[in-house]
Specification:
6 helices; mainly alpha; globular
Protein backbone atom coordinates (compact mmCIF):
# COMPACT_ATOMS: atom_id res chain seq x y z
CA UNK A 1 0.00 0.00 0.00
CA UNK A 2 2.80 2.43 0.85
CA UNK A 3 4.49 1.77 -2.48
CA UNK A 4 1.30 2.57 -4.35
CA UNK A 5 0.93 5.83 -2.40
CA UNK A 6 4.46 6.85 -3.35
CA UNK A 7 3.77 6.05 -7.00
CA UNK A 8 0.50 7.96 -6.92
CA UNK A 9 2.18 10.99 -5.36
CA UNK A 10 5.01 11.09 -7.89
CA UNK A 11 2.70 10.66 -10.89
CA UNK A 12 0.00 13.11 -9.80
CA UNK A 13 2.15 15.69 -8.02
CA UNK A 14 0.01 15.50 -4.87
CA UNK A 15 1.97 15.65 -1.61
CA UNK A 16 2.12 12.62 0.67
CA UNK A 17 0.76 14.76 3.51
CA UNK A 18 -2.40 15.56 1.52
CA UNK A 19 -2.89 11.91 0.63
CA UNK A 20 -2.34 10.77 4.22
CA UNK A 21 -4.48 13.43 5.91
CA UNK A 22 -7.28 14.01 3.40
CA UNK A 23 -7.70 11.24 0.81
CA UNK A 24 -6.96 8.12 2.90
CA UNK A 25 -9.25 9.03 5.84
CA UNK A 26 -12.17 9.80 3.51
CA UNK A 27 -11.75 6.57 1.54
CA UNK A 28 -10.74 4.38 4.48
CA UNK A 29 -13.57 5.51 6.76
CA UNK A 30 -16.32 5.65 4.14
CA UNK A 31 -18.42 3.08 6.02
CA UNK A 32 -18.17 5.10 9.25
CA UNK A 33 -19.20 8.24 7.37
CA UNK A 34 -22.24 6.51 5.88
CA UNK A 35 -23.19 5.15 9.31
CA UNK A 36 -22.92 8.59 10.91
CA UNK A 37 -24.97 10.27 8.18
CA UNK A 38 -27.62 7.53 8.29
CA UNK A 39 -27.89 7.77 12.07
CA UNK A 40 -28.16 11.56 11.88
CA UNK A 41 -30.87 11.30 9.22
CA UNK A 42 -32.85 9.04 11.58
CA UNK A 43 -32.49 11.69 14.31
CA UNK A 44 -30.09 9.60 16.41
CA UNK A 45 -27.50 12.29 16.97
CA UNK A 46 -25.86 10.57 19.95
CA UNK A 47 -25.00 7.60 17.77
CA UNK A 48 -23.86 9.81 14.90
CA UNK A 49 -21.57 11.86 17.15
CA UNK A 50 -20.28 8.71 18.85
CA UNK A 51 -19.28 7.21 15.51
CA UNK A 52 -17.74 10.43 14.19
CA UNK A 53 -15.81 11.49 17.29
CA UNK A 54 -15.05 7.97 18.55
CA UNK A 55 -12.93 7.07 15.55
CA UNK A 56 -10.84 10.24 15.87
CA UNK A 57 -10.34 9.66 19.58
CA UNK A 58 -9.30 6.06 18.97
CA UNK A 59 -6.65 7.12 16.45
CA UNK A 60 -5.26 9.94 18.57
CA UNK A 61 -5.15 8.06 21.88
CA UNK A 62 -4.17 4.56 20.75
CA UNK A 63 -2.85 4.25 17.21
CA UNK A 64 -0.54 7.26 17.14
CA UNK A 65 1.33 6.42 20.37
CA UNK A 66 1.44 2.74 19.37
CA UNK A 67 3.02 3.70 16.04
CA UNK A 68 5.73 5.67 17.85
CA UNK A 69 6.44 2.78 20.24
CA UNK A 70 6.58 0.20 17.42
CA UNK A 71 8.87 2.51 15.45
CA UNK A 72 11.11 2.84 18.51
CA UNK A 73 11.25 -0.95 18.94
CA UNK A 74 12.07 -1.55 15.27
CA UNK A 75 14.63 1.25 15.04
CA UNK A 76 12.59 3.45 12.68
CA UNK A 77 12.46 7.13 13.63
CA UNK A 78 8.78 8.06 14.11
CA UNK A 79 8.71 11.15 16.25
CA UNK A 80 5.77 13.41 16.97
CA UNK A 81 7.74 16.40 15.70
CA UNK A 82 5.05 18.05 13.58
CA UNK A 83 5.51 21.32 11.67
CA UNK A 84 3.96 24.42 13.22
CA UNK A 85 1.33 24.60 10.46
CA UNK A 86 0.03 21.11 11.29
CA UNK A 87 -0.02 21.82 15.02
CA UNK A 88 -2.02 25.01 14.44
CA UNK A 89 -4.56 23.16 12.26
CA UNK A 90 -4.87 20.38 14.84
CA UNK A 91 -5.60 22.88 17.62
CA UNK A 92 -8.06 24.74 15.37
CA UNK A 93 -9.96 21.56 14.58
CA UNK A 94 -10.08 20.49 18.24
CA UNK A 95 -11.45 23.88 19.30
CA UNK A 96 -14.12 23.93 16.58
CA UNK A 97 -15.27 20.37 17.28
CA UNK A 98 -15.37 21.15 21.02
CA UNK A 99 -17.57 24.18 20.37
CA UNK A 100 -19.94 22.18 18.18
CA UNK A 101 -20.17 19.26 20.61
CA UNK A 102 -20.52 21.37 23.76
CA UNK A 103 -24.11 22.46 23.17
CA UNK A 104 -26.96 19.96 22.87
CA UNK A 105 -28.63 21.70 19.91
CA UNK A 106 -27.13 22.00 16.45
CA UNK A 107 -28.10 23.84 13.32
CA UNK A 108 -26.94 24.30 9.76
CA UNK A 109 -24.38 26.92 10.78
CA UNK A 110 -22.40 24.47 12.93
CA UNK A 111 -22.40 21.92 10.11
CA UNK A 112 -21.24 24.59 7.71
CA UNK A 113 -18.51 25.60 10.18
CA UNK A 114 -17.24 22.02 10.34
CA UNK A 115 -17.30 21.61 6.55
CA UNK A 116 -15.54 24.95 6.02
CA UNK A 117 -12.84 23.99 8.51
CA UNK A 118 -12.30 20.69 6.70
CA UNK A 119 -12.05 22.48 3.36
CA UNK A 120 -9.60 25.01 4.82
CA UNK A 121 -7.41 22.20 6.16
CA UNK A 122 -7.58 20.35 2.82
CA UNK A 123 -6.66 23.52 0.93
CA UNK A 124 -3.81 24.23 3.31
CA UNK A 125 -2.32 20.78 2.85
CA UNK A 126 -2.86 20.88 -0.92
CA UNK A 127 -0.61 23.96 -1.21
CA UNK A 128 1.79 23.02 1.61
CA UNK A 129 5.47 23.02 0.81
CA UNK A 130 6.90 19.87 2.37
CA UNK A 131 10.12 20.49 4.30
CA UNK A 132 12.17 17.56 5.59
CA UNK A 133 13.39 17.80 9.18
Amino acid sequence: LVGSIDGFCTESGVSRTFVGLIILPVVGNAVEHVTAVTAAAKDKMDLAMGVAVGSCTQISLFVLPLTVIVGWCTGIDMTLNFPHFEIFLFILSVVIVSICVSNPMSNWLEGSLLMTTYLMIATGFWFEKVVDF
